[in-house]
Amino acid sequence: MARYHRPATLEDALAIRGGQDVAVLAGGTDIYPVRAARVGWGDMRHADILDISALPGLRGIAEEAAQWRIGALTTWTDLIRAELPPLFDGLKLAAREVGGVQIQNRGTLAGNICTASPAGDGAPNLLALDASVELASTQGRRVVPMAEFIDAYRHTQCRADEIATAILVPKPHGLGRSHFLKLGARKYLVISIVMVAGVIETDAAGNIATARLAIGSCSAIPQRLPALETALAGRPLEATADIVAPAHLAPLAPIDDIRGSAAYRRHAALALTRDLLAQLASAPGRRVA
Q: In angstroms, how far is the first alpha carbon of the chain from the final one?
């Protein structure tokens, strides 16, 4: 019989996490499906549950001097409803396509990246936002860049004694915009075949100062496109879509599965990246803060 813990303080939660083998539950939208899948294959093991949903101070989005802090219990619905600058437009688009409204009401952004699915909608956006993940244990807190946090298929840098407490998004400089595109068998309630997220910052002349682009569902972990980001730097935003070439997608390692072949995924990733840049170029420039 699995034990169920629902502590009322972070200190108690960290003590439980550090002292025994538990599965951390926030929104709970992934734990049950994963357990049901294991049972279907004859694996009847049940990990003890550490429910952190009652912990105070971990829900909501706060603007700080140099960053935005997204608490670990912040739901997709919280994000959709929050008053945020255009920097978060791409992440908000992803939020509206994560399952149905019930999932958006329960599922958390932090849980989405801790699950570390290659098809997790939050991860490419958080990569493009240059976000970091705050992790806490009884030994203290540390911050891991999102680019390092998901380090393998379904695996993260979060240790067995740690709990993710927040996602940190730094404030950029100057003008910026973001976007997100997802390809699936239908518009909603679907696992993505390919998705692309992008954040572009421009200077006063309308040239690209910084570009961050990330692809999901095309590798074991979401991937940035550093060669393309370098190629875009200094160019007028309106002339970016035609720059994208197959060589820029070299970091990707798509597979054949029931949703699409590797060749189709690579072709779709190229098309979606071009479309994303074209749509970013057509959007009116707005200040990010």
A: 50
pLDDT of residue 284: 60
Q: Which residue range(s) make up the domain with 184?
A: 175-282
pLDDT one-digit tens code per residue, 134-182: 999 999 999 999 999 999 999 999 999 999 999 999 998 877 899 999 9
Would 227 be classed as within a structural domain?
Answer: yes
* Strand-pair category, 67-71 with 132-137: unpaired
Number of domains comprising the chain: 1
Class of residue 5 by CB neighbours under 10 A (exposed 0-12, middle 13-18, buried 19+): middle
Sequence letter at residue 160? A
Within-domain flag for 240: yes
Q: What is the pLDDT of residue 67?
A: 97
CATH of the domain at 233: 3.30.390.50
Strands 140-145 and 132-137: antiparallel
> Distance between CA atoms of 211 and 66, rounded to whole angstroms?
19
DSSP 75: B
Q: 104: which residues sit within 8 A by CB, 6+ positions away?
A: 75, 76, 77, 80, 95, 96, 98
Structural contact between residues 129 and 178, judged by C-beta atoms closer than 8 angstroms: yes
Amino acid at 211: A
CA-CA distance, 150 to 123, in Å (whole number)? Answer: 9
List all residues 6 or more positions away from 122 whose beta carbon is below 8 Å from its beta carbon: 91, 94, 98, 109, 112, 113
Which 3 state secondary structure label does DSSP give 233? Answer: coil
| Euclidean distance between CA atoms 17 and 50, whole angstroms | 7
Let me know if residue 168 belongs to a domain. no
